[in-house]
Structures are given as C-alpha cells and as structure tokens.
Amino acid sequence: MPTGTILVADDDAAIRTVLNQALSRAGYTVRLTSNATTLWRWVSSGDGDLVVTDVMMPDENAFDVLPRIKKLRPDLPVIVMSAQNTFMTAIRASEKGAYEYLPKPFDLKELTSIVGRALSEPRRMKIDQPEEAGENIPLVGRSPAMQEIYRVLARLMQTDLSVMINGESGTGKELVARALHDYGKRRNGPFVAINMAAIPRDLIEAELFGHEKGAFTGAQQRSAGRFEQADGGTLFLDEIGDMPMEAQTRLLRVLQQGEYTTVGGRVPIRTDVRIVAATNKDLRQLINQGLFREDLYYRLNVVPIRLPPLRERIEDIPDLVRHFFALAEKEGLPAKQIETAAIDRLRRYRWPGNVRELENLVRRLSALYPQDVISAALIDQELSQPAPSVEEEENAQIDLSGSVERYLNTYFQAFGDALPPPGLYHRILREVEYPLIGAALAATRGNQIKAAELLGVNRNTLRKKIRDLDVQVIRSNR
Question: Given a cut of 50, is residue 138 above it in pLDDT?
C-alpha cells in the first residue's frame, strides 16, 4: 500500500477535518492549511508527496498556483477540488496539469483510491499546456451525470483516441465533439463534420474520401473529401449508424492503414485526423441485424461517452435556461428573467426533444412575449401546445415538391458554409428515379411492360434504368 505525506489546502474547516480523518485512516501523513500561501511554501521547500487543494482559496486561486507547482515540481501530483462544477473547471484543471479533478461533494472512498493510484504510478513528465481557455462554455450543467462527462472529456483532451458519443437527438452530441476539438491538442486544426443521414447513400464515399475528375457522372473536377479537409484536425462522423455497408468497409480500411484513395483515384493519401463518431441508435443491435460492421464498431468505440437525456439531468434546467436567455440577449432579443414556479414547471416536463427543445422554447419566450419575467402560466401555455413530433411531421400531408425541398434544405445545411460537390442535378435525379421505378414495378407486380406504360417511357429505357440503378424486380403471378 502506498504511503506518503498529503498536503491538503481548503478554507472550509469541516472539509479539512473530514479529509484528515479519511486520509489518516488510509495510512497517510496529512498536513492541513486554509490558504494557498502556506501550500506554496510547503511545496517550494520540497515537502509533501501529493497535493489536494480546493480551487477557491481566500488568498489565491489554485489555478494560479498550479502552474508554479508544476514548473517547480513537475512530478508532484495535484488533485483539484471545486464546488463550481462546470465544464470549464474540469478543462482548466486538466490544462493546468492537475492529476485529477473532483467536483464537490465527492465520495471519500473515490478520493482515497485516486490518492493511492497517483502515489503508485511512475512520476509523469511535464506536458506542455495549451493557452488559457476562453469563458465561452460549450457545455452547461452541474448534475452528477454531466460531472462525469466533464471528467472523461478532461482526460481525453491530450489524446487522439477515437470517441463514440451515444445519445438521443437533441442531447448535444456535436457540442461534445466540438469541445473535444476546441480544447484538445488538435484545436489549431480544422473541425469537419459530416452527417451520414443527410448525404445520399451513393455519394457518401465521395464525400468522405473525395473524387477525381470524371469519376462519375457530374464529376467535372477534382473534389477534396472530408478526410482531406480535416487533415491535422478532427473529423466528426454524425449519425454513424446510417453509414452504408460499402462505406463502412472503406472507413475501416482507413482506420487500419492510415491512408485512403479518392473515388476514381489510384494514389494512396496519408491521413492524420482524430475520429469522433456519434449516433442515436443502438449499434450493437445494428450489428446483430447485419447493418453495421462489428470490427468498425470496436475501432470507433475506443472511448464510449453516453450523453444523458434532459429528463435524467433536470437539476441542470435552471443553468441551461439562464444560459439560453443570455445567448438570446446577446443576439439582440430582450433580456428575460424567470420565476421559480416556472422553473419547477419545466422540471416536471418530460422533454422528448431534450436540450434542443429547451433551447427552442427559451428563444421563443424571448422573442414572442413582452413580459420581462416569464411566469409559470406562460410556461404552461407553451408546453400545452407542443410542437409536432417527428412521426407527426413525417406523416403529415406534403407534396413531392415540398418533400424534395425539405430534403435539400437538410442536405445543404450539412455542408455548413461550403457547397456540395458538382453534379448535384444528376445525383438528385438518380435519388428520385430509384424509388419511382421501384414503386411502379411494385404497383404492376413486376410487369415491366405495364410499368413502362405507367411511367410513360420506352420498355428498353426502363430495362436500362433497372440495370443501371440495380432495382430489384419481384414478379408475381397474382
């Protein structure tokens, strides 16, 4: 069992007493102080084998002391405690060189275990720390579920491990991916996102790996793929469960070999990207159904992160509401406050749309209501008229033109400020032709003569389309 002297710094006498009792029972020698000045004097004189310190001290912030400690004694483990419990606190603790971050209140057994592990490990070399992070907090919440996510993210910042983010729609999967990039060692490189569900199946490989001029109809010039665009940075593969099997095979090859070829190309291209994937589906179930490669799953799922739905972190609702009201105010909407009773009403709601639904509600309250203070009655009014569910929207009556327009809006949004590669006209026609011919053949029970007549095309033209599009023809004698 490891032994040593633990330097404890906290201005709360009760916490010092509890820590002293727990660490002494574990066999450690404990020295206690209530300020950073004494802690620094002990450290600078060579005392102590490990430091346990609160962030907020009466004379100095621990984050100001930490760099001096790491510079003078880079092998001295420092465990940081904080009651602030924000994402940025965890990140700053990691950036400043802390061995571990513990949000208050914490479990004493966990603390003792961390102390033992820190003293048992070989002394680590000092890691160059990135510049001070800004205060634009990308993730909001102090619930236990979010605290665990912050701690995992903080440990991942200086690694290139692949991460799989799983969570319901609206939980903030892309925000987590961006946080991993923006506060990690690849933050100076590009962050490139691609939504598998928004890209036509026959175009995904070209989107990921790029294509050469003439590689397919409409490819009038060479186009760089997302892997090439993300070189030196992070590639975020959203809705990875919707990736077709052929593209999965090519992606697995890239992850295994670290190189790829463009569609229509022959020269291998080396790649240097960190992969972060996300899904709202059960990939293990897709594996059992033969829709997702098991070997690719294990390549991507090196570090799994589950984002909790909002109904599992309702204690974060007040912080989220204040955060979204502040964002709305920065965008020029009127400043708002909210009653405690209104917050209680929000806590009792189920939030099927998760954090995204809450954000939309707050923006609506900011824009549509003249009241400076949002009451419980206004919340009841809004929540009693819920927006249509996804299923209702999909089942709503909409003509073909409207459906295509909605699809194209989603498609263009997936590219952000960029444009899709050339050849969009032919790709869209191909996307429409396949279900159109399939429906005609189904309606005529596989009779190609009747299907050609129904479509108003020549029978030879229909046969060519069936062959080119690889449409499955099922004939019936009924």
Answer: yes
Q: What does the pLDDT look like over 43-95, one tens digit per residue?
A: 999 999 999 999 999 999 999 999 999 888 888 999 999 887 777 888 888 87
Rounded CA-CA distance 106/102 in Å is 7
Place of tokens 């102390």: 115
- 249-253: long-range contacts, CB 8 A cutoff, minimum separation 24: 249/293, 250/205, 250/208, 250/209, 251/208, 251/296, 252/293, 252/295, 252/296, 252/299
Backbone phi and psi for residue 172, each to the nearest 5 degrees, phi listed first: 100, 35
Backbone angles phi, psi at 379, to 5 degrees: -65, -45
CB atoms within 10 A of CB 388: 10
What value, to the nearest 5°, has the Cα angle with vertex 297 and ends 292 and 301?
150
317-330 vs 354-368: helix crossing angle, rounded to 10: 50
What tokens does 471 get? 């449409």
pLDDT in tens, 8-38: 999 999 999 999 999 999 999 999 999 999 9
Pairing of strands 50-54, 5-9: parallel
226 vs 28: CA distance, rounded Å? 53
Report pTM: 0.63
- Going along the chain from its start, the domains and CATH numbers come out as 5-138 (3.40.50.2300), 159-306 (3.40.50.300), 311-383 (1.10.8.60), 423-469 (1.10.10.60)
Q: Specify the DSSP element, H or E, that contains 118.
A: helix 108-120
Cα–Cα distances (Å) from 401 to 197, 263, 408, 428, 432, in that order, read: 20, 31, 11, 13, 11
Mean pLDDT of 415-429: 76
Contact predicate 89/67, CB 8 Å: no
Q: Is 377 helix (H, G, I), strand (E, B) or coil?
A: helix
Q: Half-sphere exposure (CA, 13 Å, Cβ side) for 255?
A: 22
Residues in the chain: 478
Q: Which residues contact 188 (CB under 8 A, 6 or more apart)?
A: 232
DSSP class of residue 314 equals G
- Identify the burial level of 395 via C-beta atoms within 10 angstroms of its C-beta, where 0-12 means exposed, 13-18 middle and 19 or more buried: exposed
Tokens 């670290």 correspond to what residue? 258
Residue 295 has pLDDT above 70, yes or no: yes
Neighbour tally for 120: CB within 10 Å: 9
